[in-house]
Amino acid sequence: MDFGYAPQLYPEEYRYTPEGSANTALPTPDQGALVAIIQQLHSSLDPRTVFACFGNTLGQYLPLAGIQAQFADLSFSWGRRSGVSLRRHLNTEAFPGSTLDYRLIEPLTPAQIRTLQTLESMLIQPLLNAISYQKMSEQAMFDSLTGLGNRHFYGQAIKNAVARANRHHDKLALIVLDLDNFKHLNDNFGHQFGDAVLRQFGALIKSAIRNTDQAFRIGGDEFVIIVRGELDSAAILCERVLAKLNKGGFFSRNRIHTSLGAAQILAGENQDNLYERADKALYQAKAAGRNCYRLSLDTQNT
C-alpha cells in the first residue's frame, strides 16, 4: 500500500514548503516543544496526516528536504526526493525491518542526529495507531471476499452521491447486477467454487469501472456500481462488463453470465427509488434471456 501522495493532498498545515537552506540556524526542541509534538502526532488517525506532520515537524528542527519511509507493506512519502541521502533503520517490534530515507539540505551535525533520534521515537506509536485504525475501518467498509465496498459502505456512498447530485445537479446513475443462476452453481459445485466465482467477478468489476465509479457487493451475488455520469455512461460500463465476462477464460469455461440493470437519477429522487428502478431494469434483463442489460427509461420521478 502506497501512501506517497502529492504534497497538495496533505492538510494545509503539513504541506511541504522549502524554507530551509544550508547554514541556516535551526532550533533544538525543548521539553515543551516535545510535548506539543507528541500531542500533534496523536491528533490524527489518518496515516498520511501523521506522517506529513512528522515530516513538517522534522523540517522545523533539521535541514530536511524530504523523507520516504517503508513500514512492512506500507510506503509513505513527503517533500522532495533530492538532497543528501541518509537512510535509517527502525528495528521496532511494531515495524520490524522498517526504513526511513531522508533527503537533507546538508549533512546532520551530531546534535541534530540526537534530535532526529528523539523525534523518530515519537513517530512509531501514533503511526501504528493510525494504521491500525485504518485497517479496522477498511474491514468495516469492505467485503473481505471481493475487496469491493460492502452494504454498509454502499449505504453511505449512495446517500452522499444522491445528495450531491440533487444539490449540484450532477449526473449520476446506478447499476445493479448479479450472476445468472448463481444458486445452481453453488448447489452443484459447492460454496468454495462459488466463493471463487464471486472473487473473480469482483476483480472483473474492478477492472471495468473508471476511477470515478464505485463498486460494491451488497449481499450474496448481488453487486451495485455507482456511476458518475449519465445513463449512456452506465450503458457503456454494462457493455464493458459483459464483454469482459464473455471474452473467454474462467467465466466462459464455466458458462457463468451476468444480468445488469441501470437507472439515471431523476430530479429530487432518493436513493431507494433509484435502486428500485435499476433493480427493475435488472429483472427486465433476466426476462429478456439473461447475459444482457436493460436501462430504466423513466423520465419523471414518481
Automatic annotation (TrEMBL):
Gene3D superfamilies: 3.30.70.270
First-level EC class: transferase
UniProt GO BP: cell adhesion involved in single-species biofilm formation; negative regulation of bacterial-type flagellum-dependent cell motility
Transmembrane segments: none
EC number(s) stated in the UniProt entry for this protein: 2.7.7.65
InterPro entries: Diguanylate_Cyclase (IPR050469), GGDEF_dom (IPR000160), Nucleotide_cyclase (IPR029787), Rev_trsase/Diguanyl_cyclase (IPR043128)
Entries under SMART domains matching the protein: GGDEF
One of the record's GO molecular function terms: diguanylate cyclase activity
Protein name according to UniProt: diguanylate cyclase
Annotated GGDEF domain residues: 170-298
PROSITE patterns linked to this entry: GGDEF (PS50887)
Pfam family, one: GGDEF
Gene Ontology CC: plasma membrane
Cofactor(s) the protein requires to work: Mg(2+)
